[in-house]
Amino acid sequence: MNTGTPRIEINEVGPRDGLQIEKTFVATDDKVALVDALSDCGFARIEVTSFTSPKAIPALADAQEVMRRIRRRPGVVYTALVPNIRGLERALEVGTDEMNLVMSSSETHNRANLRMTRDQSQAELTAILQAAKGSHVPCNVSLSTVFGCPFDGDVPVGEVLRLATQLVEAGATGITLCDTTGMAYPTQVAALCEAVSRALPGLPITIHLHNTRGMALANAIAAWQTGVTRFDAAAGGLGGCPFAPGASGNVNTEELVHMFECMGVRTGVSLQPLLDIVQGLPQLVQREFSTPLLAAGPRLATHQPPAWLAEKFGPTQTPA
Amino acid sequence: MNTGTPRIEINEVGPRDGLQIEKTFVATDDKVALVDALSDCGFARIEVTSFTSPKAIPALADAQEVMRRIRRRPGVVYTALVPNIRGLERALEVGTDEMNLVMSSSETHNRANLRMTRDQSQAELTAILQAAKGSHVPCNVSLSTVFGCPFDGDVPVGEVLRLATQLVEAGATGITLCDTTGMAYPTQVAALCEAVSRALPGLPITIHLHNTRGMALANAIAAWQTGVTRFDAAAGGLGGCPFAPGASGNVNTEELVHMFECMGVRTGVSLQPLLDIVQGLPQLVQREFSTPLLAAGPRLATHQPPAWLAEKFGPTQTPA
């Protein structure tokens, strides 16, 4: 099998991309405790919160307090979503390590999600990138819907390349290719990752996957096989998209870590502490949801054979 | 991306591998209607039933009647599980096109599932293969737990190759590599498929995947990239394993079809009629279960933008 790099980096986006659409307001103390627990798992990056208007996203109204109070583990990059100059200022005030700017590659999703045209968003992002230059804080741009828009359908690769190139020219230090509503499929993921790598050699590319149609891990493999080393993921598969009915959340971090570690690819993340966090998520967000890997356990978490087996056959084991 | 063949074959195992563990007895008329509807979807193979003792699997006690009454669509191979000579005779009486024999590659799972040692199972299968020779009906062998056993852990590749080789020498016309409890991961799948292909060149290999830890579609891609063209799958992801708590069912047929068709790989299966069948499954088996692709729809089943969008912006579409 064609393999990628022996080491990948995971950006845990659950505290931001997951909690932002939850109906329950998670208390600030609990958010800080969640990020601190995630810090101890070994993530390369954690997207802590979003400096959007508290009116737009009340779930993350405590962005500054959370970012101020989290324990900064050395080596972990603490990022936050920043939608405008005011958000950038708030994020800088509390020492955010890296900014994540967002716009959609498709026109209708951008209008529905951000209430601006793509041109307006691009101008806004360019202004943020300009304003951030003095701070020397890296600014990544997440391009939504690059593998398909729930309203417009497929997005031309040329549009993705145009936006990525212009945003990098404006100062973006990395691009995240987002499968916002789980429309990506493996050959498409590979082709787009390769096209962006070719157009912008050396640019750090992150892939952001959703598991809406079951393909999240297959798409992660496809991206990894092209050389992508950075993956967004949300513990417990939190998140979703309000504009795509039936859309499930982000790729489960625990499943992504488990798969890559099984393959001998180092993620830096310790699975068991992560599973402990996942176990507490339904209580944190006050709703039930299924977490398959937690139910089944890691692949080599073997079970005791039925009791009647020893009586019938004596001790048993497949010979090595 | 390294790609496999442009056309694959899907073996729909839901009527056997799915229904056998359901608590509700599905009426014979409904089973026949299910298989007939599946026949119209374009599957290469359908595993219709199991000729096990009605005491062992009461859910499939009507095996002969179902196999007699289904409509035989030309081009579809109708298979059945056959555990012993008596089962073979019953299957032959009703014109089963192909037999599927089963044993585990791990000792403890074989004892727990089949109540025999592997040596005993191998002797039984060899006797069935011998007895079937006169009929010229093909006999596939499904080797369970080849990617890991829920009791014994990893199974040595040498054991899988030994059993596969000996069973092929005894007359098996194909081997199915079964990830019985969803322990497989992509590089492992690729390595084992390649090892079996090398050891038994030209042998038809089928891959049987479960989605227990989210990797079913990633594993399907890995197998396909090595040249495997035959895939077991169950509509709606029916099935499971009674010995692995938390284990989910087979890879969802609709997700497998959807992924490969998105990639331009022909499965022969029409997705919409299949989704119609999947929609009826919860009623058929009298329990609720989630079918993500049905909830989300195929990737290009786009949605209407929110109504306020047109008022604010006028008509909108990403330029081609």
Task: Explain the overall architecture.
2 copies of one chain form a homodimer. Chain A has 320 residues and is α/β, with parallel strands linked by helices. Chain A has one domain (9-313): Aldolase class I (TIM Barrel, Alpha-Beta Barrel), CATH 3.20.20. The first copy, chain A, is 41% helix and 13% strand. Chain A is built from 13 helices and 8 strands. In chain A, strand 7 (205-208), helix 9 (216-225) and strand 8 form a beta-alpha-beta unit. In chain A, helix 2 (28-39) runs antiparallel to helix 11 (271-285) and helix 10 runs antiparallel to helix 11 (271-285). The radius of gyration of chain A is 20 Å and the shape is globular. The two termini of chain A are 25 Å apart. The relative contact order of chain A is 0.14. At the A-B interface, helix 5, helix 8, helix 9, helix 10 and helix 12 of A face helix 5, helix 8, helix 9, helix 10 and helix 12 of B.
